[in-house]
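go over this:
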Amino acid sequence: MKGVVLIASGNPQYGNMAHQLCLSIKFSSPGIPVALFYTESAVTHLEDKRRMNVDVMTLLEPKHLRTGKRPDDDGLRAKTYLYELSPFSETIAIDVDTLWLPQKPVTALLEELKDLDFTMSCRSVCEVKDATETFIHWADSTKIVKEYGLTEGKLYNVSSEFIYFRKCDKVKALFNTIRDVYDNLKVPHVYFGGGIPDEVAFTIALAIHSFNLHQDIYIPCYWEPYHKQSLLASEMYKKFWALSVG
């Protein structure tokens, strides 16, 4: 079964955004199942949780949230458990601070990606040998290359706002490495929302596994601060699947 996974943790605004995202997904693809993983803090303000309009609601467990070593943001570490959390054989995981655009159904994107094991949003790529200090925002890429003994392959500047994967041994091993890297990060890093940015762990794990994404540059979500241009709705619908409001 194919479906969409959302994570809403921490601030109640994430519960509100998850609700709106789910409505936009159901509008474009009424039959697609949506699973929400949440913390009580994100949804406790809602009078009736059933009005979230998701098909499955599951409370995140303590093991999904914090390592006990650092004050990590709940939702960031939970992404390292996406493989374990997802009830679907094929999953789209998307940040809740997005809206699905109405003219491109989720089912069409799942069909487009059906032959892949894993992919995610990626804004740029370089060869490991060409890594520079500032290639990614979250950590010095030259230190990543050194500390993790990377000698060849690609280094991806990824965004975890959109992730697609299928259940298979290859992807399970990748997510195990993502979580291990996240919990035992060997390089200094920028903090995001008081926690460790999960993207740095995805970048490192993909390089460790020599895992090539299906496109070097893949941006399914329109985010105006990144694209630095304001698009008409008609233009947005042609080029993108979702609108990020993060």
The radius of gyration is 17 Å. The beta strands are 2-8, 34-38, 56-59, 90-94, 98-100, 118-127, 154-166, 221-222, 242-244.
